[in-house]
């Protein structure tokens, strides 16, 4: 039987908390399943930051129509940015701390099931976003979430437990800034999120009604809340009901310009960014990425 198409599989060896022997077992499973489904697969391991982008760009140039990525939201971002506005579709095998995009899309969290789903999936168009010139596919933002992303990046060990501990410690040292959106003062905000998908990851829904294929982003403002409301805010975040909070406000946008009184500490899909100046632009790119679902 002739192969259906060529297939590139990109693996980030640093993503996730699985021991090396299990990761090798998963690599073998991918090779076997690709062969079973009559794909001619090349499996490549990333060696440095940005490597996934280079590999995915080469796949597009070679006419490869499916690229599977095994990693977290950062690795998925690196890969997907090279596939935007091309005929090459992205398959996701979630292995990160949050897996926000995969969870929003309803993909299996079990790696083997995710591999089978991606190899047999159909390409579906979704939107993507840009924060200045930084692409994102799940969320990008300023404020507390960006502060946590910067603190989390400093930790020697990744994983959910580290993220929870980092978030808790960051809450007590974080100092909110004031923002202006499209020339209108928004005041001091705890966080300001541009959501393509509805959640940060781990089913923490910042934009409960976000539609990843509606040609718009959900711009979500979380105002300053008293300390005694932390538990309630957290409960609503994970119960997909934060939009009912008096401290939350949101609207759908295609583009917005944001100014801040402090340094523009930001993130795109959880990866920390320090933007120049005190102004940035966020925009949507409708129907710009094919994802295997």
From TrEMBL:
Coiled-coil region(s): none
The keyword Nucleotide-binding belongs to this UniProt entry's keyword annotation: yes
SMART domains attached to this UniProt entry: DAGKc
Gene3D superfamilies: 2.60.200.40, Probable inorganic polyphosphate/atp-NAD kinase, domain 1
Protein keywords: ATP-binding, Kinase, Nucleotide-binding, Transferase
A GO term for molecular function: kinase activity
Pfam families: DAGK_cat, YegS_C
Keyword DNA damage: no
Transmembrane regions listed in the UniProt entry: none
Annotated InterPro entries: ATP-NAD_kinase_N, Diacylglycerol_kinase_cat_dom, Lipid_Phosphate_FormReg, NAD/diacylglycerol_kinase_sf, YegS/DAGK_C
Domain DAGKc: 2-135
Protein's UniProt name: Diacylglycerol kinase
């Amino acid at each position: 039987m002739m192969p259906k198409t060529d297939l590139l599989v990109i693996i980030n060896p640093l993503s996730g908390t699985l021991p090396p022997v299990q990761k090798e077992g998963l690599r073998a499973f991918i090779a076997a399943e690709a062969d079973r489904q009559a794909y001619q697969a090349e499996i490549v391991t990333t060696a440095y930051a940005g490597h996934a982008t280079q590999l995915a760009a080469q796949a597009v140039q070679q006419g490869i129509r499916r690229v599977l990525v095994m990693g977290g939201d950062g690795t998925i971002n690196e890969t997907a940015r090279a596939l935007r506005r091309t005929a090459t579709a992205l398959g996701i095998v979630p292995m990160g701390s949050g897996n926000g995009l995969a969870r929003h899309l309803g993909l299996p969290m079990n790696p083997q099931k995710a591999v089978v789903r991606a190899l047999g999936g159909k390409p579906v168009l979704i939107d993507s976003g840009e924060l200045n010139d930084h692409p994102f596919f799940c969320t990008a933002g300023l404020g507390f979430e960006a502060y946590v992303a910067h603190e989390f990046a400093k930790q020697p060990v990744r994983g959910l437990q580290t993220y929870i501990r980092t978030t808790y410690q960051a809450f007590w040292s974080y100092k909110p800034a004031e923002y202006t959106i499209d020339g209108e003062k928004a005041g001091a905000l705890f966080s300001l999120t541009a959501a393509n998908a509805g959640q940060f990851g781990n089913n923490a829904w910042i934009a409960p009604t976000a539609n990843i294929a509606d040609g718009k982003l959900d711009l979500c403002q979380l105002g300053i809340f008293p300390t005694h409301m932390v538990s309630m805010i957290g409960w609503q975040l994970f119960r997909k009901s934060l939009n009912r909070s008096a401290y939350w406000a949101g609207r759908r946008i295609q583009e917005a310009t944001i100014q801040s009184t402090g340094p523009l500490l930001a993130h795109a899909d959880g990866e920390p960014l320090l933007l120049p100046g005190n102004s940035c632009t966020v925009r949507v790119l409708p129907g710009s990425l094919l994802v295997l679902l």
